[in-house]
Amino acid sequence: MNPLVIVGSGLAGYTLAREFRKLDPASPMVIVTRDDGRAYSKPVLSNALAAGREPSDIASADAQAMALQLNADIRCEASVIAIDRKRAVLMTDRGEIAYDRLVLAQGADPISLALGGDAPMDVMSVNDLAGYTRFRHALAPGGRVVLLGAGLIGCEFANDLVASGHSVTVVDPAPLPLGRLLPAGVAQAFHDRLAQAGVRWQLGTVAERVDRAPDGSLRVTLARGVVLAADVVLCAVGLRARTALAEQAGLAVARGIAVDRYLRTVDPRIFALGDCAEVDGQLLPYVMPLMQGARALAATLAGRPTAVSYPAMPVAVKTPAAPLVVAPPAPGIEGRWQIEARDDGLEAQFLDPHGVLRGFALLGKPTAQRLGFARRMPAVF
User: Fold this and answer.
1) C-alpha–C-alpha distance, residues 325 and 205, integer Å
2) I want to staple 344 with a disulfide (CB 3.0 to 4.6 A). Which of 157, 209, 265, 365 is the partner?
3) What's the pLDDT score for residue 343?
4) d(CA 177, CA 256)
5) Between β-strands 167-172 and 200-203, what pairing exists: parallel, antiparallel or unpaired?
6) 8-state DSSP, 228
7) Is residue 109 helix, strand or coil?
8) Domain containing 371 — which CATH number?
């Protein structure tokens, strides 16, 4: 019997493997990963500094321990070259692997900026534990960090860095942080709280070049002419789903690998999960959708076809200086935001024309009410 093969040992791949083993302890399973196979939760990387966690403390188990735990063959540092759908074979640089079912849990790549200057190659990004380890080694105590990107991950890193004594300047072309998730009033209040904590903002502009100064530090030149001195430049402008392997294999690809609610691609033997998957038109690169998907897919792979269902899934942003929970309305939903000041914070509701709650944002103490708000929202599907 050919094995279930999972490509990727990140949160999606290992969560699926755990859920599958709860239902099927014995069927053969192979996990193929291009890294060293350590198990860790990527979301913890953006608040590990203030928590006092060293990179070596973040992984919960190495590949050997995971192989024993999951009763799986874990093939580390193996690059996938192609999928031969006709033969049901995964081709890697370490040989071919025949599969019964194949799950693509490859995650996403950080988006890079086209920067001029003589040191754009020194701009760092953090998308895995190895990248985070390099970032931490480059980060001197009290160092100056220029952070490109005021989205969710950028803001989490900014909070973590200032809380641990670093100087942080965040650069973004949008006028406010988290502009895609929050109404302007909440975004402004969030901006102000992080500013009070020590985050400096350079908004409404972009970085144009990064140069190495004579003293070894970096200089970031912005479009408006401002030059920022930095010891480290960190780019966190977003992620792009890894779709090249699927596209090369002739699978349907949009913003992610296109799958139905069973997380099945156009090939009934191939599935996709996590940040690389676009589920029934929805691209939701967050932990809760991943967990919902892993449980449903595990049941399907164990012989009980189960469509994934998404309840309202608020996102808790890890910015203790500005506690925030947001459940953005789905794209295309008509409605308007209503914002009210509450006990040491803000409460924003996105109501559709019928008065139904379709999204919310809670800042400060009102975040304690997130479960009540989530129960009032209809399921995504």
Assistant:
1) 27
2) 365
3) 78
4) 25
5) parallel
6) E
7) strand
8) 3.30.390.120
Q: Is residue 313 part of a domain?
A: no
Q: What is the pLDDT averaged over residues 219-237? A: 98
pLDDT at res. 218: 98
Helix (H, G, I), strand (E, B) or coil at 296: helix
**Whole-number pLDDT of residue 332:** 86
Q: Rounded to the nearest 5 degrees, what angle is found at the Cα of 19, between the Cα atoms of 13 and 22?
A: 140
Domain boundary among 209, 235, 261: 235
Rounded distance between C-alpha atoms, residue 358 and residue 26, angstroms: 43
Is 312 a domain residue?
A: no
The encoded tokens of residue 249 equal: 């294999």
Of 207, 235, 234, residue with least CA distance to 139? 234
R_g of the chain computed on alpha carbons: 22
Q: Residue 235 pLDDT > 90, yes or no? A: yes
Average pLDDT over residues 350-374: 96
3-state secondary structure of 98: strand
- What does the alpha-carbon distance between residue 272 and residue 25 come to, in Å, rounded to a whole number? 22
352, 333 in Cβ contact below 8 A? yes
Q: Which pLDDT tens digit goes with each residue over 157-205?
A: 999 999 999 999 999 999 999 999 999 999 999 999 999 999 999 999 9
Tokens of 251: 């699978």
The rounded mean pLDDT for the chain is 97
Phi-psi region of 347 (alpha: psi -120 to 50; beta: other; left: phi over 0): beta
**Stated pTM of the model:** 0.96
Q: Are 267 and 247 in contact (CB under 8 A)?
A: no
Which of 163, 159, 160, 190 has its CA nearest to residue 174? 190
Question: Does residue 116 sit in the same domain as residue 104?
Answer: no
Q: Using one digit for the tens of pLDDT, what is the confidence trace for 293-346?
A: 999 999 999 999 999 999 999 999 999 999 999 999 988 899 999 999 987 999
Do 137 and 277 belong together in one domain?
Answer: no
Question: 347 is in which domain, residue-wise?
Answer: 323-376
- pLDDT grade, residue 381 (50/70/90)? confident
Residue 69: its pLDDT value, please? 98
